[in-house]
Amino acid sequence: xxxTLGNLxxxxxxxxxxxxxxxxxxxxxxxxxxxxxxxxxxxxxxxxTFDEYGRGHFMRHEFYxxxxxxxxxxxxxxxxxxxxxxxxxNQSLVLTIDDGEEVExxxxxxxxxxxxxxxxxxxxxxxxxHVVFDHPTTFRTLAMEVDKKREVIDxxxxxxxxxxxxxxxxxxxxxxxxxxGPPGMGKSTIIVAMANLLLYDIYDLELTAVNxxxxxxxxxxxxxxxxxxxxxxxxxxxxxxxxxxxxKENKAAEEEEKDPIKKQAKVGDSDEGxxxxxxxxxxxxxxxxxxxxxxxxxxxxFTTNYMEKLDPALIRRGRMDKHIELSYCSFESFxxxxxxxxxxxxxxxxxxxxxxxxxxxxxxxxVAEHLMPKTSVxxxxxxxxxxxxxxxxxxxxxxxxxxxxxxxxESSAREED
Length: 417
Prior knowledge:
This protein is an alpha/beta fold and 417 residues long. It has helices at 2-25, 28-42, 62-71, 146-160, 163-168, 187-198, 213-221, 247-258, 260-273, 280-288, 312-315, 331-342, 350-359, 364-371, 380-416; strands at residues 53-54, 59-60, 82-86, 93-97, 119-124, 127-132, 174-180, 201-204, 227-231, 298-304, 322-325. It contains 15 helices and eleven strands.
């Protein structure tokens, strides 16, 4: 037994001596370096992990979406769990890997999104959901004054080519548009044409569905580049109008404070109808505050029927860079609609329609309604005559309204005298 332990001790001493000599002539840093080289010889790959969300979990990584699209054609053979989404026109399925699933793929060069589908997003509380965006409207089919149409197109083209300019002047690469005019002018349709021209996604932001400024910030930080954020009828969205604090409201509030019955009734009403605490300052902070620089190449579009109701701070230059007033239907706009609906370039009633359009005020939506076939046997002549009749009625109504307004002015002048 003693001899065995002695032999074991000799072996241990020999091993320790060898290890000491090895470390003396082969330092650890050299061993680590050469071991890495040996590993690279057998496995010359680099592993990179892309998280779905980054920067505080506010924004979805654009690379993640690109990789997901790239792998959609290679996942069926390897992955056991897949997610299915409908493709364009709901005619096929797009398969992507399910959450927690892993696949391996080798490729050379950059990832290119070859089958990217544009999306129309809408918000529910603090989350975005989307459908495939496949609207056919373009500027070519848009019933809009030619000069204003060209103005918008030129401005958009200049914007997407101005990345270096925005970097040089130290400004966020974004631009704001305000479209205003009576209902039926096609404000929403213009946004669709803009998205189709630039190949952008659309984020339709409903402010009344957002709880507070924090939820609003979370939503806005998830908006990707190459997108249009639209807020329609901004004059109807929460308390974002210019009438923030009126003297009459202050006076009424003071009276309610004195009357306990009125005060209690107001509290009940406010608790019942209050669904959002989004403020004007919260929206402005994202439009041109610090958060506006989080991502580039984004458009922000407001529409309103009543521009005079908006707070000047919301629409000043630098926030809403372009103010475009949409006018009533002109003859040029009518010709676009006639081409879209009737495939018509000329007709003997065009001269009459041109004259009546100059003498009345009708919206493109009103004109399109008369050009839309109502029955399977409707023809061009019937549609145009219907429009002529409607324009004549609109002209008569405008004349009667002008006469009534004239009488009211005369009556008011007499009363003042």
